[in-house]
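TA notes, week 10

Several of you asked for a full example with nothing omitted. So below is the full record: structure tokens for the whole chain, then the designed sequence directly under it. When grading your own attempts, check the secondary structure regions first.
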């Protein structure tokens, strides 16, 4: 919607207004209208609001008209006022300001008739917005002051905060940044004082505040508030809003930090495409084109512009924007020196649209660009004609602006005359006011009767509101107290772990282990409480992603198999093999399975049996988990799902694990069935795989662009996965395949051979493997010159600290336990590979490569020293190639290429050339000979090639470099 895009605003809940407008009934309550009529009217208004939020104009107006018509028929002015306010909002958003003004006068009149200050305040707010969009800024400011000072100032509410935001926006149009800032800060204060934070609206105000500081050229404040806006958009969880937020912040970063701008631009495109909002996608593509153009990447900019044009052409509802995109494509084609005829065709398309919508500015711009193209074609006649038309339209725009200024002066003069007439009429109005008091006295007699009827209805509203507030407070309490528990628990665990290292007495060690075990149990309870509070507050959403359910369940149950062997429990796993992928929430499924299995292991005696079965039946994932040796009766089954249920004081309680499972299954719109027979407790869980729940967000490959779409597979980092469990390898491959090339090995020996041959960027290895375990494999990797620099991540089902310590002693870079979180695996690998770039950055800055201040092991340090020795000897030798270099180092050409690429970010050839140029720069600084002598002394036979390479690296010629540093 035009106006909402202009202000970066969010839609408001009109039905919230209906709970605030406790309108005092007057004589109209004597008319015959039923409670059913009232409910019908407000249901129409609610439908109009819903379609308004979905940007479906016709449907929104249709239901607003139905509400208005029914209210008029029943002579129900309260409902009539609500319907008019809704229509007015729709017309304002769709730039139909004349119709909005007519309605506004009606609403104001009803507000005065009913003597309802809140209704008058909302009418005044809408009137101010209309004046703002009509560019009558002084009138808008006066109206904003009336509605904020006369009512909203005394009654802080959502609408007060919205009014201050619009008030600030109006001041911004006048370039009054001080008053704009004050209004925006007031808006934030009101929003944050409300019982429940409205993340979406707070995000908008912080975004507007960042734009103020952007205009003030205060980059730090600009980014600070832009990031706050992003934070609240993420809390709000609306993908469409997030796309808009990332688009805004990437635009802000364009002139401040191009790297950050590109990062947020990629997020903008990701979320825009995921939202499937075509307006947002177009905005993301246009932003991407601008950022690519800033980086002189015209090809990429052209690609994004054409994507935007394709959508705009299909929608065919924004000709002005489409014309601008045609002009931009033409400019990119000219800059790339491509087919000039194609550029001319795009300019002509833009010209045709601009003439149709009478956009003189766009027409002028088209002729200006056509002049350039025809000049490049040496078609001077056509260029001259275009130049004449350009000046003609440019001059007409200037004349038009002058006429507008004169018209504004005339309007001011007429306004002053009308104000004098109003003063003359004010005396007559005072006489009419006395008559009004007589009518009010009569209406007051009916007021008591109407108020008594309305009192019951108002109390019901208050009760519903209080219940909602109590639920919010309860959820906040659980969340807050859970967070508070974490700090003291950490402070308990830390000294206990220190004492365990120094105490040798076995009895004391057992007591410390008991403390540590129970502290861990409390941490689990804290996490479960947090999950329950999210569900209670309605903030937990299902994130459905495509994956293989059988492989995923294998990865979850594997650690329990290890635990079963340790506890002497017969654990039987039967997961039906499934070759078809489905959409499911991996985090929720993992919580359900691990909580039930943990409960089963907790209550199953030694020597007894636990069974886990999984299959897909009737498009549902069926999970069956049973354990023997329980003493629960059938009548006690339902109580298992109560939080902290305890059968009696002598037995363990159920905690909140099963309660969390039940809540998660209900969130998934699934089923959970429980039965007990022959001391065997069985849970059967059915989760839908194709019928997506209403609260789910489905992340598909089509709307989630992967890195593979942006770069070739050969450019992706290589990750080697070493694990004897093929299911685990499959899960890890699914997690990483979009961002990395994947190699697989079934044991340590194969993995070591593959690592030496392929030189991967990162290795993920299980600890328990045949032939060579994970510890031995890691030591072998870190002690070999070919592979010493490769980061290694160890995975294990063992949770003991001794296993963790042994993993780190084997010089592993990271240690993760199973079951693992997919995001943690991906981020760990990404971070380890990113850390290697520190050495690459250092290499590009230093003349002599020394591993100072960089985390690097001794083998890599010796390798770098060997490179320096070889280069010191061979730099003057122009016949010394990358093949000679590999032979001198003692590696194959491919192995040296992979090692240098990962360690320093360059190929062997680039490394040689860069070192020669660095040596040349040092000689130029010292003045050791002329440019030709220095070029030959560092191995360049061709002076033009030397100058070309030098300019690419230092952005100036050798002679210019000497001048700068002389």
């Amino acid at each position: 919607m035009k106006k909402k895009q202009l202000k970066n605003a969010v839609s408001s809940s009109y039905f919230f207004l209906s709970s605030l407008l406790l309108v005092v009934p007057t004589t109209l309550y004597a008319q015959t209208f039923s409670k059913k009529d009232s409910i019908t009217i407000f249901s129409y208004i609610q439908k109009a609001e819903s379609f308004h939020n979905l940007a479906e104009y016709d449907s929104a107006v249709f239901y607003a008209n139905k509400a208005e018509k029914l209210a008029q028929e029943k002579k129900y002015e309260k409902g009539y006022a609500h319907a008019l306010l809704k229509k007015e909002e729709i017309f304002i958003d769709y730039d139909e300001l004349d119709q909005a003004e007519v309605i506004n006068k009606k609403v104001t009149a009803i507000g005065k008739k009913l003597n309802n200050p809140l209704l008058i305040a909302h009418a005044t707010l809408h009137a101010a917005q209309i004046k703002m969009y009509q560019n009558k800024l002084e009138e808008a400011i006066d109206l904003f002051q009336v509605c904020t000072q006369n009512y909203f100032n005394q009654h802080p509410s959502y609408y007060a905060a919205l009014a201050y935001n619009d008030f600030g926006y109006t001041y911004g149009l006048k370039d009054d940044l001080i008053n704009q800032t004050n209004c925006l800060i007031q808006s934030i204060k009101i929003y944050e004082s409300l019982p429940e934070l409205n993340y979406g609206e707070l995000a908008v105000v912080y975004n507007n505040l960042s734009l103020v500081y952007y205009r003030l050229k205060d980059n730090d404040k600009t980014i600070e508030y832009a990031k706050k806006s992003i934070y609240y958009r993420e809390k709000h969880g609306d993908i469409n809003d997030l796309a808009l937020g990332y688009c805004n912040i990437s635009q802000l970063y364009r002139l401040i930090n191009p790297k950050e701008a590109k990062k947020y631009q990629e997020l903008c495109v990701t979320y825009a495409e995921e939202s499937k909002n075509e307006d947002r996608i177009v905005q993301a593509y246009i932003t991407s084109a601008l950022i690519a153009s800033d980086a002189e990447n015209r090809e990429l900019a052209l690609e994004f512009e054409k994507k935007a044009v394709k959508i705009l052409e299909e929608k065919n509802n924004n000709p002005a924007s489409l014309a601008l995109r045609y002009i931009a494509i033409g400019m990119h084609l000219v800059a790339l020196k491509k087919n000039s005829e194609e550029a001319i065709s795009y300019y002509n398309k833009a010209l045709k649209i601009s003439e149709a919508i009478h956009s003189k500015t766009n027409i002028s711009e088209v002729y200006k660009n056509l002049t350039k193209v025809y000049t490049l074609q040496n078609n001077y006649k056509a260029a001259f004609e275009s130049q004449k038309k350009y000046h003609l339209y440019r001059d007409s725009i200037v004349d038009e602006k002058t006429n507008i200024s004169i018209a504004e002066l005339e309007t001011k003069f007429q306004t002053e005359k009308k104000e004098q007439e109003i003063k003359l009429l004010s005396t007559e109005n005072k006489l009419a006011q006395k008559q009004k008091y007589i009518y009010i006295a009569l209406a007051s007699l009916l007021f008591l009767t109407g108020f008594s009827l309305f009192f019951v209805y108002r109390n019901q509203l208050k009760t519903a509101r209080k219940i909602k507030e109590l639920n919010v407070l309860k959820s906040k309490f659980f969340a807050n107290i859970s967070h508070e528990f974490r700090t003291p628990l950490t402070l308990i665990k830390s000294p206990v772990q220190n004492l365990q290292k120094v105490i040798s007495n076995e009895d004391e060690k057992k007591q410390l282990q008991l403390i540590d075990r129970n502290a861990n149990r409390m941490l689990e309870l804290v996490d479960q409480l947090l999950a329950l509070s999210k569900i209670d507050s309605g903030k937990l959403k299902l994130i459905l992603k495509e994956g293989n359910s059988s492989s995923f369940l294998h990865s979850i149950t594997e650690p329990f198999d290890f635990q079963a062997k340790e506890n002497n429990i017969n654990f039987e796993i039967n997961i039906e093999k499934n070759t078809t992928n489905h959409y499911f929430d991996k985090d929720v499924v993992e919580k359900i399975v691990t909580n039930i299995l943990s409960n089963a292991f907790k209550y199953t005696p030694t020597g007894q049996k636990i069974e886990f079965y999984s299959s897909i039946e009737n498009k549902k994932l069926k999970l069956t988990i049973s354990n023997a040796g329980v003493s629960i009766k059938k009548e006690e089954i339902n109580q298992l799902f109560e939080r902290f249920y305890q059968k009696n004081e002598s037995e363990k309680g159920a905690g909140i694990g099963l309660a969390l499972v039940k809540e998660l299954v209900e969130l998934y719109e699934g089923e959970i069935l429980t039965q007990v027979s022959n001391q065997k407790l069985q849970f059967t869980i059915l989760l839908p795989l194709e019928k997506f729940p209403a609260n789910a967000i489905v992340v598909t490959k089509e709307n989630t662009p992967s890195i593979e779409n942006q770069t070739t597979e050969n450019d992706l980092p290589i990750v080697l996965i070493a694990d004897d469990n093929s299911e685990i390898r499959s899960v890890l491959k699914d997690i990483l395949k979009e961002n990395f090339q994947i190699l697989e090995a079934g044991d340590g020996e194969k993995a070591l051979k593959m690592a030496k041959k392929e030189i991967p960027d990162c290795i993920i290895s299980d600890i328990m493997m045949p032939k060579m375990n994970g510890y031995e494999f890691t030591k072998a990797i870190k002690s070999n010159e070919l592979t010493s620099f490769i980061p290694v991540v160890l995975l294990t089902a063992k949770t003991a600290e001794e296993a963790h310590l042994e993993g780190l002693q084997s010089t592993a870079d990271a240690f993760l336990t199973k079951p693992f979180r997919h995001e943690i695996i991906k981020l760990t690998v990404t971070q380890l590979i990113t850390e290697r770039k520190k050495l690459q950055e250092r290499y590009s800055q230093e003349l002599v490569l020394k591993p100072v201040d960089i985390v690097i092991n001794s083998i890599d340090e010796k390798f770098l020293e060997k490179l320096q020795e070889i280069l010191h000897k061979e730099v003057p030798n122009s016949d010394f190639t990358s093949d000679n270099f590999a032979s001198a180092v003692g590696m194959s050409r491919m192995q040296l290429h992979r090692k240098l690429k990962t360690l320093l970010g360059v190929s062997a050839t680039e490394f040689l050339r860069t070192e020669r140029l660095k040596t040349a720069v040092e000689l130029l600084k010292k003045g050791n000979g002329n440019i030709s002598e220095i070029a030959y002394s560092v191995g360049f036979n061709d002076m033009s090639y030397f100058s070309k390479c030098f300019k690419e690296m230092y952005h100036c010629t050798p002679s210019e470099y000497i001048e700068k540093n002389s």
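Confidence is low (pLDDT under 50) at residues 1-32, 402-407, 703-712, 847-855. Use that as a sanity check on your answer.
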